[in-house]
Amino acid sequence: MSSPSKILQIRVPCSSSNIGPGFDVLGVTLSLYLTLTVKILPKHSNLPNFNEHIVLAYSGEGSSHVPLSINQNLITKTALFVLASHNINGFPSPMIININNEIPFGRGLGSSGAAVVAGVILGDIAGDLKLTKDRLLDHCLMIERHPDNVTAALMGGFVASYLRELDSKDIEAPAIPHSETLEDGITANEQAVKQKELTVPNGIGHYIRLKWAKEIKAITIIPQFEVATATARSVLPNTYERQDVVFNLQRLAVLTTALSQSPPDADLIFQAMQDKIHQPYRMELIPGLSEILSSVNPKTVPGFLGICLSGAGPTILALAVNNFDLIADRITEVLKRKKDTQVIVKTLDIVDEGAQVIELTESS
Ligand SMILES: Nc1ncnc2c1ncn2[C@@H]1O[C@H](COP(=O)(O)OP(=O)(O)O)[C@@H](O)[C@H]1O
Ligand SMILES: N[C@@H](CCOP(=O)(O)O)C(=O)O
């Protein structure tokens, strides 16, 4: 008798990274989700009407241009990498994977981080590997080398993280499907066959979950154009002046506690969300960014706490306890004046839960 099929759901939240001074350090999960409904069929069963071993269906954000071939789609490419790093060549069982995505691509809301987390979990499930959460994180961090988005998306809530320094040989293996390179490169699967062994080092990422005051909400002002994170990282300098580094360190240390306090101290948070490490250099990619970041302040709008670029942008993240519509209108007005673009506003909750796997049903 063949084993029964299984249906699981993998649900991963979006994330806003940096929160101003915490470049590549801070991330917070927000209430927009990437959801995979995965039906794992018994080995050797045929998928109805398809000659494929894996069937991918996709709806929601990115559906008009996301690749559905398993060697090109970031989610399945990541899962294949996880399997290859455990000497499993390809998906062991046929699967029907329905992807529904609420996270817009290239907007600074961690769509690639969520895809990497979903892919690592998919690989873990497909290979029945039973990896711990910390080990899942190691695999995510081989693929997305800045820890802020993936750590938040996996662990949930407001998270600070850093990477252990690794040997270049560990992170430069061509088999690693980096999430943010602009070209496709060789697939993890092809490379694993050639390389046979692909070891993911232990304990790459270290993190701590921070407290977030429950009354602070995230207003996301999302322009309808994309900025690839790879492009937004390529405009950053390789070296910084000491005073700029000190400027950020001072604010970062204050901000992590300021965001935990109830009631929040608006002036403290507003100043502590200033940054000199990434936002000034990204202004060339986001017209009017400087004016946008100074369009609201706590003295003129009660309830407003602070403003920054969400991740690598172009989304603007405003933190507030009330007056959400007024704050969003002010920022949208400046943004639209600077660039002829549609803007979508979403006031999102901070979510405590990171990626989740829910077993839906089991049938013979
Ligand atoms: N759900 C998804 N499925 C497949 N690929 C995805 C998904 N989400 C994001 N990606 C890939 O990641 C790219 C966006 O990543 P990135 O430039 O880092 O922007 P973001 O700020 O949204 O993370 C997309 O163009 C796409 O190639
Ligand atoms: N710290 C990274 C964060 C990128 O986040 P994303 O949501 O834009 O992918 C950076 O600022 O480059």
From TrEMBL:
InterPro entries: GHMP_kinase_C_dom, GHMP_kinase_C_sf, GHMP_kinase_N_dom, GHMP_knse_ATP-bd_CS, Homoserine_kinase, Ribosomal_Su5_D2-typ_SF, Ribsml_uS5_D2-typ_fold_subgr. The keyword Nucleotide-binding applies. The keyword Cytoplasm does not apply. Pathway: Amino-acid biosynthesis; L-threonine biosynthesis; L-threonine from L-aspartate: step 4/5. It comes from the Eukaryota. PANTHER family: HOMOSERINE KINASE (PTHR20861:SF1), HOMOSERINE/4-DIPHOSPHOCYTIDYL-2-C-METHYL-D-ERYTHRITOL KINASE (PTHR20861). This is Homoserine kinase.
